[in-house]
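Appendix B, record 7
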Amino acid sequence: MTLSLASRALTSRTSAAILLAASVSAIIYAQSKLPADLDPQSHARLPYPKKSDLDAKTQTSLAPFVNKSDDTLRGPLAFAAYNPAVAQALFDLHNAAVTGGTLDPHTRELAILVACRETNYNLEWNGHEPSAVKAGIDAKVIDAVRKRGGLDGINEKDAAVIRLGRELFHDKKVDSATFAKAVEFWGKRGAMDMVAVMNTYAVSGYFAIAVDEHPADGKPELPAVK
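Structure tokens (predicted):
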């Protein structure tokens, strides 16, 4: 009996060691796929700023984004915060465009996803996809945005949001009919609020492009599209 218990304990320890080794190997493999110039913590070309790098006002504004375990600033404003005044301005822009805008949650979340897709912004896409589902955006609409697919079968209002964002960021020209449709559905203020929301998230997306920010471990990456 004693030998059997010892044998089972040894087997258990051996299995645990094998699982640990496999986990370590998986992490090493995942990290090895990252470009050599990326910081291992931020998965970007720059490390996360420290709280101490920020001025007093920005420390207060961006407190929710500071990781308390190591006092690093993370999230959508992390790399903008290399100039704290820029991060503060983007924080204020977000509050004006998103929190203070006129768009309903469904339209706002779809506009955010479109901006994230057009700038390949993984961090905010992963953060807002659950919010989009909660706001009632159909899975096939989200999938069309993710894959930059066709708009056949998508309701007219959702298609109008997607079309406006694609033309704004990809074509660099918004057609008259596209803009007129946005004004028809959301009014002049709403159409401009939509542009403001999209650009608020696109700005952080461009920071992510510059530093080649990759998703955190275990988070999905947007598929490559032409």
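Remarks on this record: Helices lie at 2-32, 56-61, 84-99, 105-118, 122-134, 139-146, 156-171, 176-210. Residues 5-12, 14-31 have pLDDT under 50 and may be disordered.
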